[in-house]
Amino acid sequence: MVKKLLFLSTIFAIASILNAQNPIINNQFTADPTARVFEGKIYVYPSHDIPSPIERLKEWFCMADYHVFSSENLVDWTDHGVIVSQENVPWVTPESYSMWAPDCVFKDGKYYFYFPSNPKSSNGRGFAIGVAVGDKPYGPFVPQAEPIKGIKGIDPCVFIDKDGQAYIYWSGQGMSMAKLQDNMLELASEPIQIEGLPEGFKEGPFVFERNSKYYYTFPWVQDKTETLAYAMGDSPMGPFEFKGLIMEQWPSECWTNHHSIVEYQNQWYLFYHHNDFSPEFDKNRSTRIDSLFFNSDGTIQKVIPTLRGVGITEAKRQIQIDRYSQVSDNGVTIDFLNKDNKFEGWKTIFNSSGAWLQYNQVNFGDTNLKEVKARVYSPTGGKIQIRLNSLNNPVISEIEIPQNTQWTIINAPLDNLSTGVNDLYLSCNDNGHIEIDWISFE
Ligand code: FUB
To answer: S-S: 231 plus which of 240, 246, 282, 437, CB 3.0-4.6 Å?
Structure first.
């Protein structure tokens, strides 16, 4: 049996490379992202939302398997393919499509992948939490024959303290935790409830430590949709004192949020999700990242979700300016390129004089580039001006866009050249209608 499972995990692992800002994964829906640093890279273990192939889940969460993604620069992501699926876990009901929010940790040379699902023994009801074990962060992972005894619930998070003791946290029937045995597969203590949290629906615990403070973080419905909130304590078992919000609720169109917090190359990041590629159905979600900062007393500064996300964009790549850092109040709109395949991404529409857009952190390298290239469409024709670092700086390129009725790629020369990392500013001086898919420098 073990050999067969290993074989299945291996054949599914076909890596592909993705490049994107927020949302960071653009070849499938991904939710509940747990980010971990393994072998000097960031690995993301998300849920894999799919449009339901079965009637019962058409309006609900539907997940058949897990992929894992990795990145060194938080911009280019490798999809390592399927690591665990509902068909290859002995205890999971094969067509339950309940492979909800997972986690993965490393201990004593092994990677332990924790995931909730519907157990065969439960006649279609409820969740248990199982473990799959691997030698590498991208698998292959071998699922255990049975789920962890003593846990009924979802959203596992495993935290290993500095002394090597591992703790598992989960939700469902309250917010619970227990110690894990050294084998990482069994509980070492009776589950207890986390005290000190605010009233209201809570799920998705994520625990981390920083400067000897323990952070118990969780999605929490304070009003209409889920916020991300946190409490702090001096021990992984609490007590925890509620501190407030990490992220505000979504303005209605996505009911869930679910997150993880990780330090990578001296910067802390919040991984979370939103329904960017599926605005009309909030159970098909996508992973995002933004930077996270602490105050001097250890409390967390609120994270404002951005489209720009994190990481440096190479000037020679196709820069998706629709993932902007800031835009003018009027005259710029963002829309899908192809409403029938939203994974193709977005376009930026400039349609009035004075409109501007800012896209931060573009790396022009150390040699002067000579021209700008843009994929554009404009039924009216018009001009776009590009500046670096401020709208008051000299224009480095004026792109004259001829009236056209089809997407076309045009080139314009660059003046006042620059090297290094700069913020881009695009602005429009006329009232034409100009659509831009991407721009690039060469
Ligand atoms: O992804 C399914 C469920 O939605 C998760 O388990 C919850 O945390 C929520 O994000």
So the answer is: 240
Residue nearest to atom 8 of ligand 1 (CA): 204
Residues 6+ apart with CB under 8 A from 120: 91, 92, 93
CA of 24 to the centre of ligand 1 (A): 19
Q: Could you report the per-residue pLDDT of 302-348, keeping only the tens digit for each?
A: 999 999 999 999 999 999 999 999 999 999 999 999 999 999 999 99
32 among known catalytic residues: yes
- Domain final position from 244, 262, 292: 292
Per-residue pLDDT tens over the stretch 126-179: 999 999 999 999 999 999 999 999 999 999 999 999 999 999 999 999 999 999
- Is any atom of ligand 1 closer than 6 Å to the C-beta of 100? yes
Are residue 194 and residue 323 in the same domain, yes or no? Answer: no
Q: Return d(Cα 21, Cα 8) in angstroms, integer.
A: 32
What b/e readout covers 17-41, taking b as 16+ CB neighbours within 10 angstroms? ebbbbbbbbbebbbbbbbbbebeee
- Report the candidate in 218, 225, 217 with the shortest Cα–Cα distance to residue 202: 218
pLDDT digits (tens, 9 = 90+) for 38-87: 999 999 999 999 999 999 999 999 999 999 999 999 999 999 999 999 99
Any domain includes 224: yes
Same domain, 389 and 244: no
Catalytic residue among 203, 290, 322, 435: 203
Residue type, 8: L
Same domain as 385, residue 349: yes
